[in-house]
Design brief:
Blueprint (H helix, E strand, L loop, with lengths): L11 H23 L4 H20 L7 H21 L3 H25 L7 H25 L3 E5 L7 H12 L17 E7 L3 E7 L10 H12 L2 E2 L7 E7 L8 H18 L12 H5 L9
Parallel strand pairs: 1-2
Antiparallel strand pairs: 2-3, 3-5, 4-5
Length: about 300
């Protein structure tokens, strides 16, 4: 029937308008986070952002990172130059094709290894490092006051990016510079699992010090949380360091921001079953389990 016919493709102007809305909505979400807005307010705006991305996909548009756009431009230039110099000879064609593969291969490999690092400017990375260093000090303070050996908390700046989450973790655990005016890090003695919600996934990373592995095996801990949330344990997990992700699924109502609390609860339940975390009746631990209230001034 006519009603079932596919809608005509959106014009480039329509797609550009949607992309503009996505950019504006993304900036709004970041602003809400920076202004410490409520979780419900942030979640509502994240839902709108996801809807805009779906609208862009339906219109035939595509959210491409800057690296991919550069690659297209570079590909066009590469096509024009060999035509002038080599005139379409057999050897020229071979060389031309080889150059294309080499160039394209390098960029793809770089994207996988770098995880989009080209998009991180120095100022942003400093903010990521600062969050880790500050929260490391806060965790160290809790550890020294109450002897809490394992900790679960959220981090904001990575937005689910595992590469950035590892930078935060490293800065939490770095040795304290006693000559520095502002103390950072120092949380190395504490086993910890960190959670960061992005648009596309909930990122998770955990590290347990060598002297505490006999109590909690990091890989088993992360595998448990991934199983409870239908997430994916990432390759390369060890008894000391493990990473996991839980992918968003709009159709099933699975949003990273909403799944974050369930993931933290699963991680803490695993610790409690092994007598590595205070019981529920100990109200003194409620404020620093999740970390959102205590660490709002992290950066």
């Amino acid at each position: 029937p006519a009603a079932a016919a596919a809608a005509p493709a959106a014009s480039s102007a329509d797609i550009a308008e949607i992309e503009k809305k996505i950019t504006e909505q993304g900036e709004l979400v970041r602003k809400l986070k920076a202004d410490k807005a409520s979780k419900d307010a942030i979640s509502a705006e994240v839902t709108k952002l996801l809807a805009l991305k779906e609208e862009l996909k339906a219109a035939g548009g595509e959210l491409a990172p800057p690296a991919k756009q550069d690659k297209k431009k570079g590909g066009d230039n590469k096509k024009e130059e060999p035509k002038k110099e080599e005139g379409g000879g057999k050897k020229g064609k071979k060389k031309k094709g080889g150059d294309k593969k080499e160039e394209g291969g390098d960029k793809k490999e770089g994207d996988k290894k770098e995880g989009g690092k080209k998009e991180y400017d120095a100022k942003f990375l400093k903010t990521v490092e600062k969050e880790g260093g500050k929260k490391g000090q806060d965790i160290l303070g809790v550890y020294e006051m109450g002897g809490l050996e394992f900790f679960c908390t959220t981090i904001d700046t990575p937005e689910g990016d595992l590469h950035l989450m590892e930078i935060v973790l490293d800065n939490m655990n770095r040795e304290i510079d006693e000559n520095s005016e502002e103390k950072r890090g120092g949380a190395g003695p504490v086993g910890k699992m960190l959670f960061s919600a992005g648009i596309e996934q909930l990122g998770m990373i955990a590290r347990v010090p060598t002297d505490k592995i006999h109590k909690i095996n990091t890989k088993d801990w992360m595998a448990h949380v991934c199983k409870q949330l239908q997430g994916e344990l990432q390759p390369g997990a060890t008894e000391e360091l493990a990473k996991g992700v839980v992918l968003a699924d709009k159709q099933k109502g699975r949003f990273p921001l909403k799944m974050k609390d369930d993931a933290i609860a699963a991680a803490i339940a695993y610790l409690r079953e092994r007598n590595c975390f205070p019981d529920n009746d100990d109200e003194s631990d409620d404020d620093f389990v999740y970390g959102d209230d205590d660490f709002d001034d992290a950066f």
